[in-house]
Amino acid sequence: MTEDHLVDDSAAVGSVDGAAQAASARRWHWKWIVGGVALGALALWLVLFFTVGGDFYATVDEIQAAGPARSVRVGGRVAPNSVAQDGDIIRFALQGDRGGQMNVVFRGSYPDGLGPYKQVVVLGSTTTDGSFEATEVLIKCPDKLLPEKLTNTVLGGTGLEKLLY
After folding, report:
1. Range name among 10-19, 63-72, 95-104 with the lowest pLDDT average
2. Mean pLDDT for the chain?
3. DSSP labels for 95-136?
4. Whether 43 and 97 share a structural domain
């Protein structure tokens, strides 16, 4: 009877260990499943990022090289002495990193902060005469960490403006 009792106790301990191992294996499988889903989502995001494009806007030079485009964002710096307003029509020139210049026409209220040397992104389409018909004008807020003189003179034309914007 003592041996039967010992066998029964060992069977009970063995079944408890088996249940604990099964629970541990289920937790281990869930970790792999969650990790696999996370890696799959990351891989999908990277594929979409590199195939669709990660740029928020194109430069003036890229748009001029590409030709007519519809519904595109163009970024650049407002050329000095180019801002003119006639009623609700605002005209200004955008300068590219490599010296290209594009005339922009915007119909609407005068955007706050629009002025010479300001970094802007315009949304709209190119016209047949090579100018840009803007439906939106986004103006970069001043950077508190970098003085405006540094971003206008030292970094101008280096291509780093896209990183700072």
Report:
1. 10-19
2. 75
3. E-TTS-EEEEEEESSPPTT--TT-EEEEEEEE-TTS-EEEEE
4. no
